[in-house]
Design a protein that fits this description.
Elements: H1 2-24, E1 26-27, H2 30-37, E2 40-46, E3 49-55, E4 60-65, E5 70-78, E6 83-88, E7 92-96, E8 98-100, E9 106-110, E10 113-121
Length: 126
């Protein structure tokens, strides 16, 4: 019995920062996502790996990993579901929500993690 209580307490402590961050973060609407990304470059970290990504208003996107790997994909906003969707050769179409954080930054929801990023106007990558 003590072991179950200990495990439940440990899990609650692990999840608490994520739940708190989720609660204090506002989910962006489809129009806010479009306005934020179209014609912008984001810089962030995904699973600990740094990257930059440019979102062309025509629906193409360029991803540049910190180690130099470059990929071209597609992006769109699903207005009905209010989510961002990206297409990559390796994964097909995948949906993500974006949150605006209390500090004014942004984050993708990636499973149980917040993947934070900043936004710059225009194309900032070659």
């Amino acid at each position: 019995m003590k072991r179950r209580i200990l495990m439940a307490t440990a899990m609650a402590m692990i999840l608490m920062p994520f739940v708190a961050a989720q609660a204090s973060a506002q989910r962006l609407s489809a129009s806010e996502i479009e306005q934020l990304l179209a014609g912008s470059t984001i810089t962030g970290s995904w699973g600990g790996d740094r990257y930059q990504q440019y979102y062309d208003p025509d629906g193409t996107t360029i991803y540049l990993a910190n180690e130099g790997r470059r990929e071209q994909g597609q992006w769109q906003v699903n207005a009905e579901q209010g989510v961002y969707e990206s297409w990559w050769r390796s994964s097909g179409w995948v949906q993500y929500t974006i949150r605006r954080l209390e500090d004014g930054g942004y984050a993708w929801i990636n499973g149980d993690r917040l993947e934070m990023f900043t936004v710059s106007d225009g194309r900032q990558i070659e």
